[in-house]
Amino acid sequence: MGKLCQSCNEREAKIHFTELKDGKKTEMHLCEHCAQEKNMTLAFPSLLKTLVKGGDAPASGESDAVPSVCPSCGLAYTDFKAKGRLGCPQCYGVFAPVLGSLLEKVHHASSHKGRCPPHQAEPQAPVPVEPVSDPVMEDSGVPEPAMSGPQPETQPEPDPIAVLRAQLTEAIASEEYERAAELRDQIRRLEEQA
Amino acid sequence: MNYDDLLTQSGEWLRGSGPDSDIVISSRVRLARNLAQYPFLTRATDDQRQEVHAAVQDALDDLGLRRNGHSYINLVESDALTSLFLLERHLISRELANGSGDRGVLFNRSEMRAIMVNEEDHLRIQAIRAGFQVRDAFADTIDIDDGLEGLLHFAFSERFGYLTACPTNVGTGMRASVMMHLPALVFTKQIDKVFASVTKINLAVRGFYGEGTQASGDFYQISNQVTLGVSEDDLLDLLERVVPRIVSYEREVREHLMSREKVRLEDKVWRALGVLRSARRISSEETMEHLSSVRLGVNLGLIDEMDIGLVNELFILTQPAHLQTLNKRDLDTGERDAARAVFIRKHLGLE
Asked: In angstroms, what separates the C-alpha of A153 from chain B's closest C-alpha?
């Protein structure tokens, strides 16, 4: 039998987790039962997928201007990549830059042709949605990147340093330390230039 | 839920009528819609899910869609057997059956309409017709869509169209599919050729129970793969150009078999009927396989005096949840196979 669960000290620890808080790395070893109680199991499948896919965070070449998290529903872009489901209608606007190429691949088209709701002849105003707090978000404990609420249809243009910071947050959360180091260096270079 | 009506018959769309019904079992159109002011279900809290469910119920009420022979089943209040039963009847999807939280389906007595609530999207509006009538099915979904749109605010963007949880449905949110019975093309091993050409023109081929299911009983569902950048009309046009060609191909091969290999064909058809009429235990797969041959035999006039509607219905009524509901208890595989044989003999038997 391997390590014991740190929480119950009874069952074998099957889930090993590294938490980063305020730059400090804490290792946790839990059994499946306690991990579930701490609401942590959900984060793992997506985390695994992220690692298996070699870190599918908004990668270089895709677009630098894509927020890592939808400010409306809290869906992480990596989570979309892992599960293929968007979180809310606003996600389409938020992730529009990268969705465009994905839709092109799937549909061989990137814009709608067909029926429009009779009551929505003009572009609809975005309906504010309360951000949903999610206890299993991978970047919990790390401040979210500052981002003004992007509107659907408009391409947000956040500060490049903020974007890199967001990517750094994700890289750390998914334990991709090499990528994190690269991102940190990039941020430093940009800050020095400024 | 009162199963008595449902148990003795299937949806009207399965009765064997409609254009090209020797080959096209049914035509189905479904529209995916979401309420604009709520997150999609993967990100919705339990409260939000309940609110969506309640808002949709109110709208269906206002449209008079919860009266006059319509039934609404909330799957939260139902057991697993009910979900499976509805799944076997093509009234709900596997996703809805296996889901959790407030969700359900509204359908009318003829089962030609089914509206799923809180499936992958907040709403899945579906209409089915017997035979090849995709335009009719489409018109019905649009009726419901227009009615609901007046009461609910659907998520829509000019650029992306109707917004759906999965980007593979965005745009029209429409999936039009045609269920075809293609035993002669399978028998002569021409079917792969057909699929290869069909998939090249952005149509998808799926099994009897839709996405991710195996083709059984020589049934195949042909549907549009793409939902963005093409209008609803274009999608229906595509099916209307392609499906008749598959229908004629299947008919040609049937004729060829009848003129060149009639004895081989008759042997296959009558052996199948013999098994169905004699078996004391029979699995679902074997049933589907033999029913398919019998169906072909009836359509070719090799078997007289058998109602094609009955044969169609047996494909559904012999499924596991139907047998268990009919027998009013859970049955293990062996018991089901025995119950299935009894049920089939009762309907096709000589006794």
From this structure: 8
